[in-house]
Write a structure and sequence with these properties.
The chain has 335 residues and is an alpha+beta fold. The protein contains 3 helices and 21 strands. It has a 6-stranded antiparallel barrel. It has a 4-stranded antiparallel beta sheet with strand order 4-10-9-6, with no helix packed on it. Strands 5-7-8 form a 3-stranded antiparallel beta sheet, with no helix packed on it. Helix 2 packs antiparallel against helix 3. The radius of gyration is 39 Å and the shape is rod-shaped. The chain starts with a helix and ends with a strand. About 4% of the residues have low confidence.
C-alpha cells in the first residue's frame, strides 16, 4: 500500500513539474518571416456589366399586349414597332369624336350658305366654326395618344433582351425591351464614399466573377459620377472593359481598383502588425522570446502589409498578434 501511495505521489509531482515547465516556456505561437514581394493598395467595389450605349423601353400606360415582335437578339431600326398595346377603347373614342367633327363640318357649310341668303347671323356661323376647331384639336390629341400604345425602338441597335408576351398586362414600371449596342461594355461599380477620393480616371481595376475563376479580368476607370447617393453612401465609378473581355451584359462583378502598387518590398502578414496609439509594431521571435519592435508601414494590402523600416528581411515575427503578447515573454514556436 505504501508503495502505491508513493508511486501516485511521484506521478502527481511529475505532472505538476511538466505543467510548470510548459508554463515557463510560454504559449505556442505561429510565426511568419518578412519576405520581399509585390503589394498593392486597392479600393473594393461591386457592380454589373452594361453596354456603353443602350436604352430601356417601358410602356407609358397599363394595357394588354396584343402584338409582340419576338425580336430578341435581332437588329432593329429607330422607330421600329416592338410591341403594341390594346387601343380598342381609344380607337372607339376617336371614331366617336370624328363623327361629331364630320357633322360639325357639314353644319358650318350649311350655315355659310344661309349667310348668303340672310337666313342666319354671322355670330351663329362663328360659333359653329369654333366648335369645329375644338373638335379638330380633340382629334389631334386622341391621335397623339394612340402612339402611347406603341412601344418603339428609341435608337437603332440590337434587342439585347425582350420581356413580356401577348396577353400580358405590364405596369408602367416594367422594362419590356433593352435596345443598344452589345459592344463596347462597361462596369458600373458602387464605391463607398470614404474610398472615392482615392479613385481617379485611368486606374486599373481587377475584376472577379465566379464564371471565370481562372481568368484575370481587367478594366480601366473611365469616369466617376459627380454626385453620390446619400442613402447608400456610394459613388458610381464607370470601368471600361477591353474589347476582348469575356464578360457578358448583366453579369455581376467584384472590382479591386488599384490605387498604388510597389514591387520587391518587404512584406509581413497584416495580422502580424499591432497598432496602438497610432504606432505600429511587430513581435519578433528570438531565442524563444518575444521582442516588440516598432516599425513603419507603407501600403496595406488585403493580406500583406509593407514594412518600410524597423524589420530586416527574413525576420521572424509572431502572426497573428494576440492581445496578451508582452515584450520579453517566453513562447514556443508551433511546428
Amino acid at each position: 500500500m505504501n508503495w502505491k501511495k508513493l508511486l501516485a505521489g511521484l506521478l502527481v509531482l511529475g505532472g505538476l513539474g511538466y505543467g510548470a515547465s510548459l508554463w515557463l516556456r510560454g504559449p505556442i505561437v505561429t510565426v511568419a518571416s518578412a519576405q520581399r514581394g509585390d503589394v498593392a493598395e486597392v479600393v473594393y467595389a461591386t457592380g454589373a456589366v452594361e453596354p456603353l450605349t443602350w436604352s430601356k423601353v417601358l410602356p407609358l400606360l397599363r394595357a394588354r399586349i396584343v402584338e409582340h415582335c419576338r425580336c430578341e437578339g435581332q437588329f432593329v431600326q429607330k422607330g421600329q414597332v416592338l410591341a403594341k398595346l390594346d387601343d380598342t377603347a381609344a380607337q372607339a373614342e376617336l371614331a366617336q369624336v370624328q363623327t361629331k367633327r364630320d357633322f360639325a363640318e357639314s353644319d358650318v357649310r350649311r350655315l355659310a350658305n344661309l349667310i348668303a341668303t340672310g337666313a342666319t347671323t354671322r355670330l351663329t356661323l362663328e360659333r359653329a366654326e369654333t366648335e369645329l376647331r375644338q373638335l379638330d384639336s380633340q382629334i389631334a390629341a386622341l391621335r397623339a395618344r394612340l402612339t402611347d400604345y406603341l412601344l418603339v425602338a428609341p435608337k437603332e441597335g440590337i434587342v439585347l433582351r425582350a420581356d413580356g408576351q401577348v396577353g400580358d398586362i405590364p405596369v408602367t414600371t416594367d422594362v419590356l425591351f433593352w435596345v443598344g449596342q452589345p459592344k463596347p461594355l462597361q462596369v458600373i461599380a458602387d464605391v463607398n464614399e470614404e474610398d472615392i477620393a482615392k479613385v481617379v480616371v485611368g486606374q486599373t481595376a481587377l475584376l472577379r466573377n465566379d464564371g471565370f475563376p481562372n481568368g484575370t479580368l481587367r478594366a480601366t476607370v473611365s469616369s466617376i459620377t459627380p454626385k453620390g447617393d446619400p442613402v447608400t453612401k456610394t459613388f458610381r465609378a464607370y470601368l471600361a472593359l477591353p474589347e476582348e473581355s469575356p464578360l457578358r451584359i448583366g453579369m455581376s462583378v467584384e472590382a479591386n481598383i488599384i490605387i498604388r502598387e510597389k514591387r520587391a518590398v518587404l512584406l509581413v502578414p497584416a495580422e502580424a502588425i499591432r497598432n496602438a496609439g497610432g504606432k505600429a509594431s511587430v513581435f519578433a521571435v528570438e531565442n524563444g522570446k518575444l521582442k516588440q519592435m516598432p516599425v513603419e508601414t507603407g501600403i496595406r494590402g488585403s493580406r500583406l502589409v509593407e514594412v518600410t523600416s524597423g524589420l530586416a528581411e527574413g525576420g521572424v515575427v509572431a502572426s497573428p498578434v494576440k492581445a496578451e503578447f508582452r515584450d520579453g515573454q517566453s513562447v514556443r514556436v508551433a511546428r
